[in-house]
Specification:
alpha/beta, Rossmann fold, Helicase, Ruva Protein, domain 3, 2 domains, 5-stranded parallel sheet, two-stranded antiparallel sheet, 14 helices, globular, disordered C terminus
């Protein structure tokens, strides 16, 4: 596996998912980035915008297993992780472990904030440790493993909001959002007789995804880019509009996701632009505004823009060499459309 093959597989998988998720290329590519970075995603969005289809499309594109959990207040931890049951098939009574839905590659957890804190903690522990322990026996979860958790921002009655310490464990927080008119027309036409996703064919394998995960860890993050990440994260801790800044886990998340973004662009070095693209999905759910800032109408996006404006980024490698090269353009949307590359005949500051 090299970066050229990485880019080819990444683009092929994203394009395949985009055949059933219309008009949301930025979300699709970020979701794939999270899987390869060994992270998880929290969607805070209204129902019916395609989150379940996204989970199925990702799984089917890589011939992986998928499962779905609808959280309710009476759900127990064992309903997700699995539990021991009495087996009487061979005329003896013995306990055997029955795996829960968490033993899959892509797990959709609908309305995670409707589950009790005890059940939420069991799921988040499995997400972090990537194994499930029962009666002193530890069982490893399949690889790759991606959790797409959702919570409805509208109906909050009877819910148990995730505390900040648990939100911090999600690599990204994203929104699908409503499609535009042209995309919604494609969705309507494509799902008239049956769901489009049911006919989706695999274009890669879980083994190749695992290889991509390994290659992403080898992508170089230079000392200046590492310093840039640290300064950005530290900037959130010093901003007066925040009562809670980003944790060191945010620095780790930015470095891991930036490596995947660089490899998906066919590069073995992370550029500052990769970090900038990921700031909102990585940092947005890890910070908390002060009451005064909320009353003033400030938003997390305002804070991120302010921090970015205060921290000087290092020059990209192509700029430092002074030679003509390919410069990445910063995407828009969820902070996430994969960077469009364009050639310049001469380099210079952006």
């Amino acid at each position: 596996m090299d970066v050229k093959r990485f880019k080819k597989l990444f683009d092929r998988t994203a394009d395949n998912v985009n055949t059933v998720i219309h008009g949301k290329d930025d979300v699709v590519r970020l979701s794939l980035t999270a899987m390869i970075a060994n992270g998880h995603i929290l969607f805070e969005d209204v129902p019916g915008v395609g989150k379940s289809v996204l989970a199925r499309a990702l799984a089917q594109s890589m011939k992986a297993d998928t499962a779905r959990v609808q959280c309710t207040p009476d759900m127990l931890p064992g309903d997700i992780t699995g539990s021991n049951i009495i087996d009487t098939t061979d005329r003896t009574m013995k306990f055997v472990f029955k795996e829960g839905p968490v033993f899959t590659n892509v797990l959709l957890v609908d309305e995670i904030n409707r589950a009790t804190p005890k059940t939420q903690s069991a799921l988040l522990e499995a997400m972090a440790e990537r194994n499930v322990s029962s009666d002193g026996v530890s069982r490893r979860l399949p690889e790759p493993f991606l959790v797409l958790a959702t919570q409805n921002p509208v109906e909050l009655a009877g819910t148990f909001p995730l505390p900040e310490a648990q939100l911090d464990r999600f690599l990204f927080k994203l929104k699908m959002g409503y499609p535009d008119a042209a995309a919604e027309l494609k969705v309507m036409d494509g799902n008239t007789r049956a769901l489009e996703v049911e006919g989706l064919e695999p274009v890669t394998t879980t083994r190749e995804i695992n290889e991509m995960q390994g290659l992403a860890t080898e992508v170089d993050v230079s000392a200046p880019v590492k310093t840039y990440i640290i300064e950005l994260v530290n900037g959130t801790r010093e901003d007066p509009a925040l009562t809670l800044g980003a944790s060191p886990r945010a620095s780790i998340a930015l470095a891991k996701a930036s490596r995947v973004m660089a490899a998906a662009d066919g590069r073995v070095h992370v550029y500052p632009e990769d970090v900038k693209v990921l700031l909102r999905p990585v940092l947005g759910h890890r910070m908390m505004l002060t009451p005064d800032a909320t009353l003033r109408g400030e938003t997390i996006d305002d804070v991120i823009d302010r921090v970015v404006g205060h921290v000087q980024p290092p020059a990209s490698p192509a700029l430092r060499t002074g030679r003509p090269g390919e410069i990445d353009e910063e995407p828009s949307g969820n902070g996430a459309r994969t960077k469009q590359r364009r050639r310049r005949t001469r380099t210079g500051a952006r």
